[in-house]
Write a structure and sequence with these properties.
single chain, alpha+beta, Jelly Rolls, eight-stranded mixed beta sheet, about 30% helix
Length: about 325
C-alpha cells in the first residue's frame, strides 16, 4: 500500500457526489501524508499543446551554446537558460558536489505590482529567444493552462483539508511560479558520469505544488517514502504528476509530505535515451505569510510561519553551483 499512488480525475471530481468526493479525498490524504504525490487526469491540457511545448523546448537546447548563452540566467531566481551542470539540487538534501546532468530553460509570470524592486525580485523578465519566436508564444499558452490547473488542484486540496475552497487560491492571485523545460541528454552525448551523479539529485521542491509532464525512461523519476525507500511511481500516458513542496508541508504543519524525489542518471542499458520534462513549480503570492494550520487540520509539528517570497529565494540560492 505504501507504493500506491492515487489518480485524481478533475473532470470526475467536478461532478462527483458527496460520497465519491469523500472517498477520493481520503485516498489523496493518505498518499500525501505518506509520500506526497498523485497523478492527475482530466486536466484539460491539450495533447497537441504539450507536444508542441516539448518540441519547442528541445529545439532551443539544440541551438549553439553561444546562442543559448545570450539567454542565460543572471542570478539564482531568474528566467532563461541554465547549461549542463549549472544546478545541484541535491545540495538541499545535503548531497552537494555532483552537478545535475541536465539543461534547463526557465520561464515565469509577468505580474506587475507597481513596485519596481519587488517586481524585479519576484517576477524576473522572461528571456524569449529571437531565434525561436514560437517558443515564447507556445510557452505563454502552455503556462496559462498550468496556472489554471494549479489553481484547480489547490481548490481540491483545500477541500480535502476541510477548508474553504479558496483557502490557497485566494493567496495565489499573483503567485510566483517557474515553468521549466528540462532536457536530459543521452549517456552517449554526455560521456562520463561521476559516481553518484544524476540527471536531478535527491531533493524536495520548494513551493506549494509542482505539475510534471514526464516521459518514461530507464533513467527516469524515482520517489521516496519511509516504508519503501526509493521506487518508480506508475507512468500513465497523458497524466500529470502532482507533487507537494516544502511550502505545503509547512502550511499543513507536517500533515502532508514534501515529496523527496530524483531523476536517475542515463543508463548504460539505454545509452541513446534522452528525455524532455515539462515541470511547473507553483508557489504562492510572495508576500503571503504562510502560517502552519492548527491541529487537527495541521499535523501538529509546531513549524514556524514564513513569508513565502524570501523563503523561496533563500532555498533557491542553495542549488546554484555555476553561472
Amino acid at each position: 500500500m505504501s507504493r500506491h499512488v492515487p489518480v485524481l480525475d478533475l473532470t470526475e471530481w467536478a461532478t462527483a457526489g458527496t460520497d465519491r468526493r469523500a472517498a477520493a479525498a481520503a485516498e489523496l490524504d493518505a498518499s500525501l501524508r505518506q509520500t506526497g504525490l498523485f497523478l492527475l487526469r482530466g486536466h484539460g491540457v491539450p495533447e497537441e499543446l504539450t507536444d508542441r511545448m516539448r518540441a519547442e523546448g528541445r529545439a532551443f537546447f539544440g541551438l549553439p551554446t553561444e546562442t543559448k548563452q545570450r539567454y542565460s540566467v543572471a542570478r539564482p531566481y531568474d528566467n532563461g537558460w541554465r547549461g549542463l551542470g549549472a544546478l545541484d539540487v541535491g545540495a538541499v538534501d545535503g548531497m552537494s558536489g555532483s552537478p545535475d546532468l541536465h539543461e534547463a530553460y526557465h520561464m515565469g509570470p509577468d505580474h506587475r505590482t507597481g513596485d519596481a524592486a519587488f517586481d524585479e525580485t519576484y517576477y524576473p523578465d522572461n528571456k524569449w529567444p529571437e531565434e525561436q519566436p514560437a517558443l515564447g508564444s507556445t510557452a505563454l499558452e502552455y503556462t496559462g493552462h498550468m496556472t489554471r490547473v494549479a489553481h484547480e488542484v489547490l481548490e481540491v486540496l483545500a477541500i480535502v483539508l476541510g477548508l474553504s475552497e479558496d483557502f490557497f487560491t485566494a493567496k495565489s492571485r499573483r503567485a510566483t511560479w517557474t515553468q521549466n523545460v528540462n532536457w536530459y541528454p543521452s549517456l552517449q552525448a554526455i560521456g562520463d558520469v561521476r559516481e553518484g551523479q544524476m540527471r536531478v539529485g535527491p531533493h524536495t521542491d520548494f513551493g506549494t505544488l509542482s505539475l510534471l509532464d514526464r516521459q518514461q525512461g530507464v533513467g527516469g523519476l524515482e520517489v521516496w517514502n519511509e516504508e519503501e525507500g526509493w521506487f518508480k511511481p506508475p507512468f500513465e500516458e497523458g497524466t500529470l504528476v502532482v507533487n507537494l513542496g516544502d511550502l505545503m508541508n509547512l502550511w499543513t504543519d507536517g500533515r502532508w509530505r514534501s515529496l523527496r524525489h530524483r531523476v536517475l542518471a542515463p543508463s548504460e542499458t539505454a545509452p541513446d535515451e534522452e528525455l524532455v520534462s515539462l515541470v511547473c513549480f507553483f508557489e504562492t503570492d510572495p508576500d503571503t505569510e504562510v502560517v502552519p494550520l492548527a491541529a487537527p487540520v495541521g499535523g501538529g509539528e509546531g513549524m514556524s510561519p514564513v513569508v513565502a517570497g524570501p523563503y523561496i529565494l533563500e532555498k533557491v540560492g542553495v542549488t546554484v553551483t555555476l553561472g
